[in-house]
Amino acid sequence: MGWWKSDVPATRINPRSNNDDDAETILVALLMLLLVRELRYCGWRREAFILFLVVMLCALLGRRGLGTGLQAARQPSRRNRCQLREGASDSLTLGCCMPAIIVASLMVVRLRAGVPLGPLRAYLWAALACAMQPPFAMWCEGSPLPSGVRAHLDGFALGVVLTLVAVRSLTTGVAVGVVLAVHAATLHAALWGTVASFTIGEAATLAQGVALLTIDAAIVSLCEVKRLGGGGGGGGSAAGGSGSAAGVDPAVAPAPSPAHHVLGLLLTDEWCPPRPTVAVGAEALLLGGMSLAAILGTLLSFGPARRLAPSTRSAVFVGLIGAALGGVLLPWLSLLVRQDGLLWLLSQASQPDHLWLLTYWAAALLLGVHVAAWLTPAALPAPATTDDATAQAARRQHRKQLLLARKAYHFLAVAMFAPAVLYHRPFVQLAFCAALPLFALLEVVRLLELPPLAAPLTAFLGRFLDTRDGGTLILTHTYLLLGCALPTLLPMPTATFSAAAVVAAGAPAAAGARAALAAAPHAGLLVLGIGDATAAAVGVHFGRTRWPRTSKSLEGTGAAVLAMLALLGVLLPLSGGDGVPCGWSQWLALAVCSLLACVLEAITTQIDNLFLPLFYHATLCLAAARELGSFAGVGGV
């Protein structure tokens, strides 16, 4: 049994009503319809139709009457069944379709801005194919067909998707196949390898993110190999030239090998656009670090390693980290940044502005942790009877105080990262991609009970747990960091509108589009750090009118929208050349985007730290695309 398993006996998880899924599905469908309209206007009719079809199929299969496999998968008699997080809806539509919607929104705004797409079109096909895997697998699992027939159906569906995509591009077909394989493996590990840590929607979104990150890092690495082999093209990072390797005379350069010829045929210049060096290095840190955490956790939970003494296992853990860094991760990073990886990291951290930023982060984090600890209520004594009115009132007050203590970290995230994203966004990207693997490694330490950090980590995190942390993994703090990081990591054409797009849309509309895109990197800080935290604080103290079938209040939602717009009014003028909205209609668009995100926060039972930044980011991209609505660009692989 792996380290991710729990000793808690399997219990049947009663599904909630479909009402939560219905409300989430309506919001996702609304966003999807607007994206379909934009894609059709840009001439991408096939992608628009498939996006519409996938969202509708996920919505239908997610309903209680048609998603029979979701019920069958929970039966206690079924072996190796997935054990889902209790108290939440399945959210098939929200979880399975959100990555595809994010990619589609990035495509739409790039098309409208007249900016090349790069490999985004292939990533959209991959995300659409992945979106159908969980509902299709659940439907097959609940069907009366024999297991062999179901396996053939899975293979047939995979073959059909690959064939349809490969008609346009062999490289796209290979990329989709790799994404599907990584997605299926990650989804299986998340749902079948942990106990009550994810819903299907949460696991699907995370699995798709891992799969898309893997294929993007692979493409960047192959583009760099192609460049080193003289295969031409711009690929890799923006540091250095394209074509032959830097410093090599083309007249005396060695002839490319057959492997490089193959790479040159598969990876055209559209697959290998120049990228900032920091963005390439940050992606390598993120994927390499997260993979290292998963591999180490698995290795140290099987066979002889499980029987080692705790101190010995800790030493092995540290030794394996050092071996992986020196033997794999740093050489890979050196390839991508075109210099020694360790020296490059040190040079990034030792710049004067970055040193001041690191010092500020350390001081703010120390102060924020002490404030949150001061706000955290003491543990309640066991009541003599659960029916006692005084005990129930004490529990309600304890939950309110704990909620406010948890939201203190949301305000801390705004204080730490909002100024940094404004003025040092590349370094913030690098810091996020280093911190997320560190969080993952610390969670492995906690799960494996490795001294000396496991006990204090468990004690510290245990003070802030809520009902969503009752499974194998404790992830809400990681979700908060991930939610703040994702919008800053997604590529945005903020300052690179083509002249034709600006002329077609007009200067005021172009300024409004730039303002929406300038807000997009702050989407996580806005909706989590300000919106979610304000909604909780106002709702706890002043909430009177409740949303249907939820404990969230209309007063909290309204306060969250106003607080987000107020912070936008501060951030946008400070964002330099991106400017501020020029008229009331553009502020109205930002207000509608904020309102939709806050409504989702009020009705969803999923981990809002994961879904709210993605949803808000997609709405801001769509608002920018609609500002540039009179121009339709082309391009993409």
Descriptors:
70% helix; disordered N terminus
Give the helix proportion (percent range). Answer: 55-70%
Q: What kind of oligomer do you see?
A: single chain
Shape: globular
Largest sheet descriptor:
none
- Derived structural class: mainly alpha
Strand content: under 5%
Average pLDDT, rounded to a whole number, is 80
Q: What series of H and E elements makes up the topology?
A: HHHHHHHHHHHHHHHHHHHHHHHH
> What's the tally of helices?
24
Measured between the Cα atoms of the first and last residue, the distance is: 43 Å
Nearest-angstrom radius of gyration? 25 Å
How many E-type strands? 0
Q: Which consecutive residue ranges, at least 5 long each, have pLDDT under 50? A: 1-17, 64-80, 239-252
Can I get a quick summary?
The protein is mostly helical and 637 residues long. The protein is built from 24 helices and no strands. Helix 4 (92-113) runs antiparallel to helix 5 (120-142) and helix 18 packs across helix 21.
Fold and architecture overview:
- With 637 residues, the protein is mainly α.
- It has helices at residues 19-41, 45-62, 68-72, 92-113, 120-142, 147-166, 170-192, 200-228, 258-266, 277-299, 303-306, 310-337, 341-349, 352-375, 389-423, 425-448, 454-462, 476-489, 499-505, 507-519, 523-542, 554-574, 584-603, 608-627.
- The chain is globular.
- The two termini are 43 Å apart.
- 44% of the residues are buried.
